[in-house]
Amino acid sequence: MICVYGLFVYLTSIMTAALYRAYAIGNMVALSEDQFPELHTQFVAIARELGLAETPQAFIHNSGGVMNAFAIRLLRGRYVFLTSAIVEAEDNAQLRFIMAHEIAHHALGHLNAFKHFIRLPAFLVPFLYRAYSRAREFSCDAVGASVLPDVHDALTALQMLACGTKRLNKAMNVDAFAAQDFRVPGLAGFVVEIASTHPRLTRRVAYLKANFKRHAA
Fold first, then answer.
1. Helix pair 128-146, 186-194: axis angle to 10 deg
2. pTM listed for this prediction
3. Which strand ranges, in their side-by-side order, compose the sheet holding 57-61?
4. Which residues pair with 78 in a beta bridge?
5. Which of 7, 11, 71, 213, CA to CA, is 20 to 30 A from 29?
6. CB atoms near residue 185 (< 10 Å)
7. CA distance 153 to 159
8. What digits encode the pLDDT tens for the residues 93-127?
9. Cα Rg of the chain, angstroms
10. What separation in angstroms does the CA of 109 have from each of 51, 94, 112, 140?
């Protein structure tokens, strides 16, 4: 019975991946040498800098105003998805950080199917997998910051995820935003944190400020 269930899950995952890939190719814009070549060149350069022999396929899609970026594995393919809102709001250096963060998920093996299978028991322990997921985000932030000459661009890229207003991009104060983390209520903040797959943005900015001193002020 377990084998039958496992086969069902496996076939379902393959079908789901194939359907999503078909949807992405038919409804999103793929970066290439012929499509937004400047962004594509930058994306390829980051992938090579992070040690990937094969560059993931990047897509930009209409998000209806939602700012987000994510990396996934579909069958054997590696993919990075950037929403239109994040491309619109972030400047070139900030977008480089966003792309590097997502590529880092592939470079660090976070999306490896075998490793994911090994981690499945973690889902049985309350909040354990979410804690692991938050740790992955911190590691990808660090990798993303490492490819930038000035870590300030990584800090403002993260703050822009909270702000989302292109008009205020150049006026952002990362010190003030990081300081907000000290104002998060202790118990309520803890409950929100342990239930989340991503660390709160104020903490992510504070972490980078503390660990990447160059030009952070």
1. 90
2. 0.91
3. 29-30, 57-61, 77-83, 69-74
4. 73
5. 11
6. 9
7. 10
8. 999 999 999 999 999 999 987 777 777 777 778 88
9. 18
10. 12, 23, 5, 11
